[in-house]
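sorry for the late reply, my laptop died twice this morning and i had to redo everyting from scratch. anyway the thing you sent over, i finally got around to it. pasting the sequence first so we're on the same page, its 106 residues, then the predicted structure underneath. double check i copied it right bc i was rushing
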Amino acid sequence: MAKSEFAKIAKHAARLMHQKLSERDIEHLYYQASTESGVDPAQNGGYDDHDGTGLPIGLFQYKLGTWRSWAVPGHANIHSALDQIMAVLNDSNWRNDFPPIGVKRG
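ok and here's the structure:
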């Protein structure tokens, strides 16, 4: 997904979540999505860590248990970029949970 399209969706997600995203926030979200999935909301089958929770899915490579915890009611399509970004924003500490831009880790 192009950065401009991602930014448009991220801004829409923020409005729905009654939040504001700075350009740095969008850059941070985009970088993490790039690291996790190549910015592909339908990405399936990431690294299987054999913990019994299945393969990660989507932009931010959610495991299903984590997805169920953070998905916003009415926005639970794990393959939707909008729903996935809303789930990230549902975590009030996401800015600290993500590694700094330039640091690659899941």
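The mean pLDDT is 90.
thats about all i looked at so far, will dig more tmrw
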